[in-house]
Amino acid sequence: MKCSNPNCRREIEVGVSQCPYCHAPVNYGGNTTIFVGATEEKLTIKDLFKNTFKMPPPNAADNLFAAGTALVTPTPDEMIRNWVRPWFYARVLIIGMIFNVLSYFMLSHFGHVGGMLVFADTFARFLRDRIGKENVIFVSGTDCYGSPIAEGWRKKAESGEISGTLEEFVNSNHEKQKATLNAYGISPNLFAASGLGRSKEIHAEVTDWFLKSLYEKHQLEQLSTMQFFDEKAGVFLNGRQVIGKCPVEGCTSDKAYADECELGHQYMPENLINPVSTLTGETPVMKPVTNWYLKLRDYEKLMQE
Questions:
Q1: How large is the average pLDDT for residues 15-26?
Q2: Could you tell me which of 60, 182, 16, 196 has the C-alpha nearest to residue 110?
Q3: Mean pLDDT value of segment 249-254
Q4: Which segment of 17-26, 204-213, 234-243, 250-259 scores lowest on mean pLDDT?
Q5: How far, in Å, CA of 173 to CA of 162, rounded?
Q6: CA 36 to the chain's CA centroid
Q7: Taking Cα atoms as reference points, which of 229, 238, 258, 237 lies closest to residue 246?
Q8: How far apart are CA 102 and CA 281, in angstroms?
Q9: What residues have CB less than 8 Å from 190, skipping those under 6 apart?
Q10: How far is residue 213's CA from residue 207's CA, in Å, rounded to a whole number?
Q11: Which residues pair with 276 in a beta bridge?
């Protein structure tokens, strides 16, 4: 940037408090303190949220997004001098967090919708407005696989709460999620499901190609690991079919699954304290099971670079 002294106007480093040539104080507009503080890593949480709940002047939020043409896009010097506290973004963050928490606990089938798709839909609408809807494809869908889904279906089926197959249960949840999107005006171009219809076939084709490619390039290996086995039921147990006490020191969670507790602590399955099978209520044993694994360590150096 240039020195703000009209008699100097030499190029100076952004963030300095005075010009090294004429020693005039550098003018960053009405927010010199916060800008210099940010460049010297002295920006505090208080600075970020200080103006969040103050009533802004008319069109203040619009001015934050004024960009795109020479008439409204400021020069680099002007953008620096007009640096303002990010009250608008902080307000959006706070409101979004409150909205997500409330929607997750209070609205049926809206937890993941509120946590992900509201923001994605907002961004998609913004892009459609700026670059044209024909240039934006908003794709999302239902993840139909995983132990929570299978265990949820098993429990509801055993209690008589639902009837039908696992696929019918998944399809029912998918349709409810679609109805929720429609009710709240969220507008993906495609909302499919990884285990239903044509999208299921595409997922299978891509997965088959992906794994075969890794296998042909010798990037997969077979490893045996210990997994919980219910001898009474005669089956290996998935992560949600085992519950016990978290083994992490200081954690008091009594709702710990095979390798992760409800508080987010992770551990090896064999370290779970007092494991119980949710299928039979019996104490499961550990048995070896062999699966294919990606040779991730071969990429460690590349990832570090």
A1: 80
A2: 182
A3: 86
A4: 17-26
A5: 12
A6: 32
A7: 258
A8: 34
A9: 137, 138, 139, 140, 141
A10: 10
A11: 243
- Neighbouring CB atoms inside 10 A of 140's CB total 19
Q: At residue 222, what are phi and psi to the nearest 5 degrees?
A: -90, 130
pLDDT of residue 261: 87
Distances (CA, A) of 206 to 126, 139, 201, 218, 228: 31, 17, 9, 18, 30
pLDDT of residue 43: 56
Tell how strand 242-245 and strand 235-236 pair up.
unpaired
Phi-psi label, residue 238: left if phi above 0, alpha if psi -120 to 50, beta otherwise: beta
Residue 165: pLDDT over 50:
yes
Segment among 7-11, 24-28, 259-263, 285-289 with least mean pLDDT: 24-28
Structure confidence by residue, pLDDT tens digits, 265-287: 888 888 999 999 988 999 999 99
Pairing of strands 285-294, 220-230: antiparallel
Under 8 Å between Cβ of 261 and 248: yes
Give dist(CA 126, CA 119) in Å, integer.
11
The enclosing H or E element of 221 equals: strand 220-230
What are the backbone dihedrals phi and psi of residue 244, each rounded to the nearest 5 degrees, phi first? -165, -155
CB contact at 8 A, 143 and 194: yes
Predicted TM-score of the model (pTM): 0.54
126-136: per-residue pLDDT in tens? Answer: 888 888 888 88
Ramachandran quadrant class, 164 (left: phi over 0; alpha: psi -120 to 50; beta: rest)? left
For residue 285, the cross-strand partners are: 229
Q: How far apart are CA 266 and CA 268, in angstroms?
A: 7
* Radius of gyration (C-alpha) of the chain in whole angstroms: 28
